[in-house]
What does this fold into?
Amino acid sequence: MKISETIKSVRELVNTARKAGKKIGFVPTMGALHIGHISLIEEAVKQCDFVAVSIFVNPTQFSVGEDFQKYPRPLQADLEICKKAGVDVVFAPSIKEMYPNENLTWVNVEKITEPLCGKSRHGHFRGVATVCTKLFNIVVPDFAYFGQKDAQQAAVIKQMISDLNMPVEIVVCPTVREKDGLAVSSRNQYLSRQHKKDATLIYKSLQKCQQMILAGEEDVSVIIDGIGQILSQSPAIEIEYISVVDAQTLQNLTKISGKVLVAIAVKIGSTRLIDNILVDTNE
Ligand code: AMP
It folds into this structure.
């Protein structure tokens, strides 16, 4: 496995693979890799002939007061994980490599960046869309892999790809969970033991909501109340949003129909956690 810190060297490696007729898969990450990331890498290894993983804690997607400084950066352990998973090249650039000068060009996806996490994380999706554009321009992958865990991010990237005719296919992989249902996240390590236990209520509430929808409940306010009741079992959980939206447009629904995304963001202590489920009422 090659490790590349410069745009020039990763481009050369990918170009050589492409010239040899290889399909290029790409998994963008911020590192602190876990089984969620590994599932994306494994899918890429299965579908492609050459897999690049980027590890870059992108400063432009963090707003003031967020955890950019304290975000975990266990690079050596991450490299071991990538090597074991069959990655061909890890691109781990410095901030200076990615943003050598003041950045004046931004990719701003409208509308679907406004609800859900967009309400509290100002500028977050602009940072994500911009860094993904830069990474896609550097790696030029055939396929890029994202997790359903960050449903709004995946929707934003898909929209951007479609609007800007970017020649890459987005593959969205299912959310990987701990045995107790908690969605695996690099931020789970901030949680105390008790808070980790409290956090399992998030998926429990999503499962309950799925049952309600599949049992025929159509009233979104009833579903949101049901989730709220379960989350309120822990006094440590502070709800940021519970939203029931159209899975593609991310606009709020009042009545359940079609492909529905139920998304939750909470704070437990100072840790912000998100999770979601997709329910297709047409199935
Ligand atoms: P991050 O390093 O947090 O930026 O995440 C990199 C990619 O891994 C994103 O596409 C995430 O959606 C995905 N990811 C993070 N956690 C999980 C998980 N538990 N299951 C599946 N994908 C995940």
Notes: The chain has two domains: 2-173, 186-280.
